[in-house]
Automatic annotation (TrEMBL):
Family annotation (SUPFAM superfamilies): Cyclophilin-like
Cited function: PPIases accelerate the folding of proteins. It catalyzes the cis-trans isomerization of proline imidic peptide bonds in oligopeptides.
Keywords: Isomerase, Rotamase
Protein name: Peptidyl-prolyl cis-trans isomerase
Residue spans crossing the bilayer: none
UniProt-listed Enzyme Commission number(s): 5.2.1.8
CDD domains: cyclophilin
Keyword Isomerase included in the entry's annotation: yes
Every PPIase cyclophilin-type domain range: 89-237
Similarity remark: Belongs to the cyclophilin-type PPIase family.
Chemical reaction(s) catalysed: [protein]-peptidylproline (omega=180) = [protein]-peptidylproline (omega=0)
Domain of life where this protein originates: Bacteria
């Protein structure tokens, strides 16, 4: 066979093989690249993926100074008139009615509840036949949230009609350098004994009352505590604002 014929034969063979490869490539299905977002599939079972609910962006919370506190809370009170809240615990719910006259305390509590502050806290102090106190925790996020919200105090709002009877809902306060008896914006307590706790009248602001769930308060008050009156079993809370 001449050189020219051999060359022609090689070229024809190469063209035929190339045509076969193109045919195979076009007939092969494309790999799917989309991912399932709700499940993870394994060889033996399908595992549900836990969906994470969005958390409040507490770093974007507005910090309020002591100087602008009163007008800020008064404006907030007008825009947020809710008077009832529900404290949800593993032992049951506690429904509280807030008093309209204690404008600054009510507005502050409603604001913190709507921001989700209390949902990172628990009843951290329990004194049988006295009070259960909430609004704090030993978690780092609680300290961070307080830092972001500001170190302000709520001026006292005393009313003769609102005393420390059983079920009174009142604000804790700092005792040092607090001649004005201003309240902590973050911590609250509920009076437990039937005789009340009237030595606290005109010392702490009562700004609401329990209207349902005192049996839950009684259960919490009986929990074992350590030497610092901290319950041995954490009682986590969620606070829900009711219409």
């Amino acid at each position: 066979m001449s050189l020219n014929l051999r060359l022609i034969s090689v070229i024809v063979t190469l063209l035929f093989l190339s045509s076969c490869e193109d045919s195979k490539s076009k007939s092969k299905p494309l790999e799917a690249t989309s991912k399932k977002v709700d499940t993870l599939t394994t060889d033996t079972k399908t595992v549900e993926v836990e969906k994470v609910e969005p958390q409040p962006n507490y770093l974007a919370w507005e910090k309020v100074s002591q100087e602008e506190l009163k007008p800020f809370l008064e404006e907030y009170a007008e825009e947020n008139p809710e008077m009832n809240i529900r404290i949800i615990t593993s032992l049951g719910n506690i429904d509280v009615q807030l008093y309209p006259e204690t404008v600054w305390h009510r507005a502050n509590f409603i604001r913190l509840a709507k921001l989700g502050y209390f949902n990172e806290t628990f009843f951290h102090r329990v004194v049988p036949n006295f009070v259960i106190q909430g609004g704090n925790s030993d978690k780092v996020i609680t300290a961070k949230m307080r830092s972001q919200l500001g170190k302000y105090l709520i001026p006292a709002e005393f009313y003769p009609a609102y005393r420390h009877h059983r079920g009174a809902f009142a604000a804790a306060k700092y005792t040092e350098q607090n001649m004005s008896k201003a309240s902590s914006p973050y911590e609250f307590y509920i009076v437990q004994p039937k005789s009340g706790a009237h030595h606290l009248d005109d010392e702490h602001t009562v700004f609401g009352r329990v209207i349902r769930g005192m049996d839950v308060v009684d259960q919490i008050a009986q929990l074992p505590t350590d030497e610092g009156e901290w319950p041995m079993r954490n009682v986590f809370i969620d606070v829900e604002v009711l219409e």
